[in-house]
Design goal:
The structure is a homodimer. Chain A is mainly α. Helices cover 64% and strands 0% of the residues of chain A. Chain A contains ten helices and no strands. In chain A, helix 1 crosses helix 2. Chain A is elongated and about 65 Å long. Chains A and B meet through helix 8, helix 9 and helix 10 of A and helix 8, helix 9 and helix 10 of B. Chain A binds a DNA duplex through helix 3.
DNA sequence: CTCTTTCTCTAGTGGTCGCTACAGAAAGAA
DNA sequence: TTCTTTCTGTAGCGACCACTAGAGAAAGAG
């Protein structure tokens, strides 16, 4: 591995430029963001962008990965760190309410909004697969909770996961439409009241 | 009013062409649909389109109005024809499950999906206002139900309306991502179980 | 028939899209 | 210094965008 690079050094910070691209794609979506938009917010010329990130689609793919391990990582953390499926989902939705309305970055979820009406089918498909993978993750987490008896045996994991995902995606849309954090927290709480063994006392942090 | 028109008659049916434009906007969104896409599916040339419908934005506005009184009219009907707010919302969500997955037309809701990442701010704003007006409608319906004692006095109409809208919009997204009618009906039923005075027996049609 | 009106068709407008050829600039290597 | 490597800036590529000028076609009015 070459620690010393040979030619002319890059005149910009790659991570910073990538984050700027992420914000722009997040705000305006894949097709709503032009390469000249990107070069402007990244502060570089088009040839530098293509040399550092490949073409627009490759850059977007990298942006999506980055989003998944940064702004969008709270979902995975909620499930990893909470002891029960119920608490995991409750935290997922509560944190989504805060994240989707954080004034420090664009509203809603990039994976949900950035490729909705996309002329490039591969891009739309890639985000759709990511969303459906998230639904499947939630479902398997719920199914595991049913298996251990944490949730009632008559619980339908697929339906409950689909419901959770729908609320999550609806919250993203609501955030885009101007809902406040408090608005979305109320939505999250109402969603949790639809869960089985829905004792109000359990959500106690 | 001139029943007899003077010049060369139009070579296409305006309503049919409008419906074709509606389907295309519904499927691919405002910016994802080009004027040449429209002329192709409508079976007419560009000058005919501009003469009959104005520019692309004007045509889209007319499409949105048409959607509201045709495919998207079930929401208003649900509230007009059901005796209680709860039954109105339950019917809204059940019919949305069917409508959003109907194989006879594109999936999901045009008002929700057709201008998500839109470069033209007026178009995005116009649909956003329409969505927020729907939330306000649901809220006032719920507030009226609280006032008459139909719903408990401690019900938060704004929160319950926002929750309903989020589920509705999430169902549209889920339909786009491949959920079946049965999937969405399960989501609708779960959403209704979050409602106050949530007796399972009430939904009896 | 001719005249007027309205639509349709061909062909093209200027503008923006994603992307790149090419020459020069800035670094290490020799 | 000179050579090689890599990045940067200008300038422009063909393709598509929304949109339209202008000529001809199809109807009623006279």
């Amino acid at each position: 591995m070459a620690t010393k690079q040979r030619g002319r050094p890059r005149s910009f910070d790659r991570e910073t430029a990538l984050e700027q691209a992420l914000r722009t794609f997040w705000e305006h979506g894949y097709e709503g963001t032009s390469v000249s938009d990107l070069t402007r917010v990244m502060g570089i010329g088009a040839p530098s962008l293509y040399a550092a990130f490949g073409d627009k689609r490759t850059l977007f793919d990298e942006v999506v990965v980055r989003y998944g391990v940064t702004h969008g990582a709270f979902g995975g953390r909620a499930f990893d760190e909470e002891p029960t499926a119920r608490r995991g989902v409750a935290r997922l939705l509560r944190e989504a309410a805060a994240e989707f309305t954080d004034p420090d970055h664009p509203r809603g979820c990039l994976v949900i909004t950035a490729a909705t009406n996309c002329t490039t089918p591969e891009v739309e498909e890639s985000l759709r697969e990511r969303r459906n993978a998230n639904v499947a993750d939630i479902e398997s987490r719920i199914a595991a909770a049913v298996a251990t008896g944490e949730l009632p045996a008559d619980t339908d994991p697929a339906a409950l996961a689909r419901f959770t995902a729908a609320v999550f995606q609806g919250m993203s849309q609501q955030a885009r439409d101007g809902a406040t954090r408090e608005d979305l927290e109320a939505v999250a709480d109402l969603a949790m009241s639809a869960w089985p063994e829905g004792s109000v006392a359990e959500n106690g942090d």
